[in-house]
Specification:
The chain has 15 helices and 16 strands. It has 494 residues and is of the alpha+beta class.
Length: 494
């Protein structure tokens, strides 16, 4: 029996506002901020405290919903989601349920099997929880065996994250493979970054995935029992956890065993899912309208303003790059995948409007990416400005330096921030295109290597590359490569 996976994703994205969703506490970086340093009576859940919705968070939520082609509700309602959260001190979460911010969107993804459009069921606003840290106790009282006696452990809570604005983006169960799930997550992350709504820094937990997974016989329209894998904070974890759960459930069906509806965790070390608790249904949360917050009204005037302020989105930019710069779909995908890379690429043509776009794309995705990876830095923190790269490519296209020299100059520019012109002049790296010194260097090489010349003339044509390398080495890499090849072929022919 062949089974196909049915996958839907819930994506929780922290909204990049300066203050929390329902109070004025600042949003801080939990990786560096002192624990519980950004907490007030509202986000600490003190009795009698009244929440007030963050207008900026609502605006950012609408931005995302518009970019996903959603229908924006003129009136949405906040609700209390009653559930025991040990890291949310109120004992409930303010979220949205029956009347969310937006519904019925879509996101186009590109996979190894082609393009697909994934439906987005809803986009709604809510607040994040705090963060628990579980501390295992030491073994203070050694036993006679020497193994010690284990005491009681404890948990620490940091409420800095409690109340941080969250956007939950829920897809329809349209995904059909672990690869599609990963690419959907990557595509959505890129969109959020373009919109400046979320940093996409998954190591800091600002973007988290929950995968709802079931399998069914190929050709069936039924929806079987699903499981939900929670808190996946990397694309690798998302893909591997999804793949593992697909295989686990398929094996259970193959054996005639039952899949239990439950919430699963992902053990990164063991690369397996594990049961956390039984899966709650919507009724278990006992939703009801939040009595302390009025309905959220989005006027047509405000909606039009937000729509007008939307930036160029990845899909539109990709299409424009292909049309305007005559790039291949692959090159456009590489450049558009990160907003800062796409903007870096376009800035090059402000300085050097005559530079070949394909040449610029190749140098960015090849040599520059290589230097960035080697140094372990991102493009925004690199010392190589797009204006300086434009200067280097102009020297290359004008024949002032050759490709080999350009690579050397690029490395030095990356390390020092110096311009290509300055490095080339200081080190005397201008390309030699004068035919006389090139002719002389080739004549000397052939005279010093008669055996190799004889082998070439007897048919060992691969020696041409050896001769070429020797000439370039003797001229310190500054000779014009095309002139060298043409002259080599002429002299060897004689």
């Amino acid at each position: 029996m062949i089974y196909e996976p049915i996958i839907g994703l819930e994506v929780h994205a922290e909204i990049a506002t300066q203050s929390k969703m329902f109070c004025t506490c600042p949003v801080v970086d939990n990786t560096i901020a002192a624990a519980n340093s950004a907490v007030c009576p509202v986000c600490a859940g003190m009795p009698g405290m009244l929440p007030v919705a963050n207008r900026r968070a609502v605006e950012f939520g609408i931005r995302v919903a518009l970019a996903l082609g959603c229908e924006i509700a003129p009136v949405s309602v906040f609700a209390r989601k009653n559930y025991f959260y040990p890291d949310l001190p109120k004992g409930y979460q303010i979220s949205q349920y029956k009347q969310p911010l937006a519904e019925n969107g879509r996101l186009r993804i590109r996979t190894s099997q082609g393009e697909r459009e994934i439906r987005v069921r809803r986009v709604h606003l809510e607040e994040d929880t705090g963060k628990l840290s579980h501390v295992e106790p030491p073994h203070p009282n050694p036993s006679p065996t020497g193994r010690g006696t284990k005491g009681d452990g404890h948990s620490l809570i940091d409420l800095n994250r409690a109340g941080v604005p969250l956007l939950e983006i829920v897809s329809e169960p349209d995904l059909r493979s672990a690869e599609e799930a990963r690419i959907y997550g990557e595509t959505l992350r890129n969109l959020l970054r373009y919109l400046a709504v979320n940093s996409g820094d998954m190591q800091k937990g600002v973007l988290r995935f929950e995968a709802n997974i079931s399998v069914r016989e190929v050709g069936s329209d039924d929806f079987n029992t699903r499981t939900e894998v929670k808190n996946l904070n990397s694309f690798r974890a998302l893909e591997r956890a999804t793949l593992y759960e697909i295989e686990r459930q398929s094996e259970l069906h193959h054996k005639g065993q039952r899949v239990i509806q439950q919430t699963m965790g992902w053990d990164e070390a063991r690369q397996v899912t594990f049961s956390q608790r039984s899966k709650e249904e919507e009724d278990d949360y006992r939703y009801f309208p939040e009595p302390d917050l009025p309905p959220l009204v989005v006027s047509q005037v405000w909606l039009a303003q937000i729509r007008a302020d939307l930036p160029e989105l990845p899909e539109a930019r990709r299409s424009r790059f292909i049309e305007q710069y005559q790039l291949s779909a692959y090159d456009a995908d590489v450049l558009v995948a990160e907003q800062e890379v796409a903007e870096y690429f376009e800035t090059i043509f402000v300085t050097g409007p005559k530079i070949n776009p394909k040449l610029a794309a190749n140098w960015i995705s090849g040599d520059l990416f290589g230097l960035l990876n080697q140094a372990g830095v991102n493009l925004s923190s690199a010392r190589l400005s797009p204006q300086n790269l434009a200067g280097l490519l102009t020297l290359l296209e004008d024949g002032i330096i050759n490709a080999s020299t350009a690579k050397t100059v690029l490395s030095e520019m990356f390390a020092s921030g110096e311009s290509a012109d300055a490095i080339v002049e200081r080190r005397g790296l201008r390309q030699i295109s004068d035919q006389e010194p090139i002719k002389a260097a080739i004549s000397q090489l052939l005279a010093e290597n008669p055996a190799e010349v004889q082998q070439f003339q007897e048919g060992k044509e691969s020696l041409l590359n050896w001769f070429f390398g020797q000439v370039m080495r003797s001229m310190k890499g500054k000779a014009n490569p095309q002139i060298v090849r043409d002259e080599l072929q002429r002299q060897l022919g004689e």
